[in-house]
Design a protein that fits this description.
The complex is a heterodimer of chains A (311) and B (318).
Chain A lengths: L1 H25 L7 E4 L2 E4 H15 L3 H9 L2 H13 L6 E5 L5 H24 L5 H13 L6 E6 L2 H14 L5 E5 L12 E7 L8 H11 E12 L5 H23 L2 H13 L3 H10 L3 E8 L4 E7 L2
Parallel strand pairs in A: 3-4, 3-6, 4-5, 6-7
Antiparallel strand pairs in A: 1-2, 7-9, 8-9
Helix pairs in contact in A: 3-9, 4-5, 9-10
Chain B lengths: L1 H22 L22 E3 L5 H10 L27 E3 L2 H12 L3 H4 L3 H10 L15 H28 L7 H14 L8 H8 L5 H18 L8 H21 L7 H51 L1
Antiparallel strand pairs in B: 1-2
The chains are: A alpha/beta (311), B mainly alpha (318).
């Protein structure tokens, strides 16, 4: 029944979209090349607008919805991403489409504990210090609990950034954190600035993925790392059926019940289906100029982490 | 004589097979260049070298000693980023593997401070002008750094032994007796650990992790084989295996003794090494002695039996 439902809706939407496109071209002026919004076909400008509206409306309930849709597993996925990054103190992270700050907070925690371990090791080495040196080291610790690490959270949506800033204040994250409004396709940063660029569950919503990848390449330092956490293609057929069932039947309902917004979560589920699978995304990342591009499937492909280096 | 010739041929084949088996690691090409290499790499340097077809360089690998499983001089897959008029000049970028080797080599100087960890690799990457995130290219437990170091040491040892051999061939130096040769070779190799001796126990434990055992075992056996080769081992029978097994045991135990040796310039370790090598030499003699003693005993018994039977027949005749 589910399999029958999806293509029907898709055909319906596509027919409507094709008609709209026809009218658009008849008017003699298209507002940009055609692209997809979920299973609909829209122009690029329209897509950007629609996605902005989606996230504007879900911003306040974003975290709650994440927890309920993925049954809390998204926290594990994000933990795995930061663990894979293995940032050392002094790393500069750019988290794009980082809205509510999940990755940024995890990064800060990780770097803080790494820094503590580093300091402990240093202290163990220096067993016989004078009182002067000990007091100096304590002063140094206070000012550098993060060890010069910094994270810049960049998002295109003001509402998401607002929610993120509130969360940061609430949880007590103050130093080493910046919030910037920006478009992933056109980042407001200089070349060769960041050590790591992450985009978690955001690249799906970017209209021109190739531009975003090129921007990522531009702002990374030589040797810098690109990490992308995103829903991807499930290779296990049985799991795929269950996943489809859950996605199209349960998630929009949850969206309506919890966030009062069926359409946004319908878009979410459809956008996951339209997103290129692992190998294709890997090829796109390589096209942008990254080397040693690799991906790791989590939960047999429900989510995948792609990694590449600017060499 | 026919049997001896066949045995020699078999031994030669076995040795060649051994080399082939180690050499096949040379051809593991994990690296596939991306389809569209339109972007000039930001970091990989231009490496211009003379036209050297892949086949001939691999031939060299067979004849000389493939002593490490990650050859540093082999240019893997030239990147076609610039094909101008000068088709003759093969200007290539260095491969990712070569860059990784450079990073690991740079990381070695930070090992005494940070240990064999991803942090040392990150510091190494920083000295090359790369971001610290480049350490993400490697495993987070530092295995690659240790394996790189071990293979570097093995290469250095091979070069040292080859130089010595050249001197002997030219007549500038005396050929050392086997036990002294082995002693000097093992000592030279172990001395390379001295700058990192504090963190070496950590490295040994990482090398024993299951996913590292194939590589570390490979490096160890190839090093031991090198030493015996330069010691002039021409055996074609079971001795080939015995000798390598014995020397591996000597090397490993000496390494462990070195870990907890606190004498000046590790004198205790070298004395331990001397004793073990002497034991190993004696073992060969003892085996021979046992054999000849056994033969003598059998002959004596045979003689006694013949005497007894002669006495018996002579008594019956009379």
């Amino acid at each position: 029944a589910v399999a029958g439902l999806c293509p029907c809706r898709a055909v319906f939407a596509r027919r409507g979209g094709a008609l709209r496109a026809l009218c658009g071209s008849l008017r003699g002026l298209a507002a940009g090349p055609e692209t997809h919004f979920g299973f609909q076909t829209v122009t690029e400008e329209e897509r950007r607008e629609k996605i902005y509206q989606v996230f504007e409306s879900v911003a306040k309930k974003y975290d709650v919805m994440n927890d309920s849709m993925t049954l809390g597993i998204h926290r594990v996925w994000k933990d795995i991403l930061v663990h894979k990054m293995n940032p050392s103190p002094g790393t500069l992270l750019l988290d794009v489409a980082g809205g509510t700050g999940d990755i940024a907070f995890r990064f800060i925690n990780y770097v803080r504990s790494a820094r503590e371990r580093q300091l402990q090791r240093k202290l163990r080495h220096h067993q016989n210090l004078s009182w002067q040196e000990i007091s100096e080291s304590y002063q140094e610790d206070k000012s550098k609990s993060l060890g010069d690490s910094q994270v810049v959270v960049c998002d295109i949506n003001k509402e998401m950034l607002k929610v993120g800033k509130q969360k940061a204040q609430h949880l007590g994250y103050s130093e080493g954190l910046s919030w910037v409004l920006g478009n992933a396709e056109e980042l407001p940063f200089d070349d060769d600035m960041f050590d790591v660029y992450t985009i978690a569950f955001g690249i799906r919503n970017v209209t021109r993925i190739d531009l975003a990848l090129q921007e990522a390449y531009r702002v990374l330092k030589p040797g810098g790392r690109f990490l992308c956490l995103e829903f991807s293609h499930v290779n296990n057929p049985l799991l795929s059926r269950l996943y489809d069932l859950y996605s199209f039947q349960v998630i929009p309902v949850l969206g309506e019940v919890i966030a009062g917004d069926w359409k946004s979560y319908q878009y979410l589920v459809e956008s996951i289906r339209r997103f290129p699978p692992q190998e294709e995304l890997k090829a796109m990342i390589e096209d942008a100029g990254f080397f040693k591009v690799d991906y790791q499937n989590l939960n047999s492909g429900i989510v995948a982490i792609h990694s590449g280096f600017k060499l | 004589k026919m049997a001896a010739a066949v045995a020699a041929a078999a031994g030669g084949l076995r040795r060649a097979g051994w080399r082939l088996w180690r050499g096949r690691a040379v051809f593991e090409c994990h690296f596939c260049p991306p389809q569209s290499a339109l972007h000039a790499s930001a970091v990989l340097r231009r490496v211009s070298h003379e036209q050297e077809p892949f086949a001939s360089s691999s031939q060299q690998q067979f004849d000389s000693h493939p002593s490490n499983h990650q050859p540093e001089q082999e240019p893997q897959g030239p990147r076609p980023s610039y094909t101008g008029q000068g088709g003759q000049e093969s200007e290539d970028y260095e491969s990712e593997e070569q860059l990784q080797h450079r990073i690991l080599t740079a990381a070695l100087e930070f090992v005494p401070e940070h240990g064999w960890t991803a942090e040392a690799i990150a510091e190494g990457a920083k000295t090359l002008g790369l971001s610290v995130a480049a350490a993400g290219m490697f495993h987070s437990d530092g295995s690659e750094l240790i394996l790189h170091f071990v293979s570097q040491c093995n290469t250095k040892l091979s070069e040292l032994l080859e130089q010595e051999q050249k001197l002997v061939q030219l007549g500038d130096a005396e050929k050392k007796p086997t036990d002294q040769f082995l002693r000097d070779a093992v000592q030279a190799r172990l001395r390379m650990l001295i700058p990192y001796i504090d963190k070496w126990p950590q490295a040994l434990s990482i090398l024993l992790l299951p996913h590292n055992i194939p590589s570390s075992l490979n490096l160890l056996t190839s090093m031991i084989d090198d030493i015996w080769h330069y010691a002039g081992d021409q055996s074609t029978d079971f001795n080939w295996y015995t000798r390598r097994a014995v020397l591996t045991g000597v090397y490993n135990t000496t390494e462990l003794v070195m870990m907890q040796d606190s004498s000046p310039d590790f004198e205790d370790t070298w004395r331990f090494l001397e004793n073990r090598i002497a034991d190993a030499m004696n073992m060969g003699n003892t085996a021979n002695q046992v054999q000849s003693t056994g033969e003598a005993v059998v002959q004596g018994l045979m003689g006694a039996a013949v005497t007894v039977s002669n006495v018996g027949t002579s008594s019956t005749v009379r």
